[in-house]
Design brief:
Helix Hairpins; alpha+beta; 2 domains; about 10% strand; binds manganese (III) ion; minor pseudopilin epsh fold
């Protein structure tokens, strides 16, 4: 197997009460695991995807010569694997403030509060399933959202902070209250 499900770097319950243990367990053990399984299946069928770095492949997604069906499978599951692998790492039960990132955020968005406001707006207004992102885009910080599991690497950007706003990320605890989940999530984002 080429790609592997990373271990969660903390217990399922570590992000309580903001994200509940059952949601974390299903999200990691079922959803993320399924992306990895389907990614490995499409890699196995396409030599073009074998032995290559996933980020590198995603950066040149448009030029991949897979069948349309395999390209869609790779987009959803390669993106899903990359996005969730980052998501687990940027969260934690205790803050580990990234001072350099904080300074960049302040100089780009004016203040941490205005950054949070703009990011939360992008997350709340992503229609349907997707992600909100803080990315490095050619040296500049930018906020936007993507649909489904589309990765910022597909447009040449590097994701720094990503928030999963698929219903599977919050529905057990927050039901249809996505803004309440977004508000709570800032408590478990360890970087800022
Ligand atoms: Mn998810």
């Amino acid at each position: 197997m080429t790609h592997q499900l990373p271990d969660l770097p903390y217990d399922f319950s570590a992000l309580e009460p903001h994200i509940d243990a059952r949601t974390m367990e299903i999200h990691h053990d079922k959803h993320h695991a399924a992306y990895v399984t389907k990614l490995n299946a499409v890699v196995e069928n396409n030599a073009e995807l074998q032995g290559k770095d996933l980020v590198e492949l995603m950066r040149r997604f448009d030029s991949l010569s897979l069948s349309e069906e395999d390209k869609t499978t790779f987009r959803h599951n390669g993106g899903g694997h990359l996005n969730h692998s980052l998501f687990w790492e940027i969260m934690g039960p205790a803050k580990e403030i990234d001072e350099e990132l904080m300074e960049r955020i302040k100089s780009t968005f004016g203040s941490v509060d205005s950054f949070k406001e703009e990011f939360s707006h992008a997350a709340a207004n992503r229609f349907g399933s997707g992600w909100a992102w803080l990315v490095d885009s050619k040296g500049e910080l930018k906020i936007y959202s993507t649909a489904n599991q589309d990765s910022p690497y597909m447009q040449g950007d590097t994701p720094i902070i990503g928030l999963d706003v698929w219903e599977h990320a919050y529905y057990l605890k927050y039901q249809n209250q996505r803004p309440a989940y977004i508000d709570a999530w800032w408590n478990v984002l360890k970087l800022i």
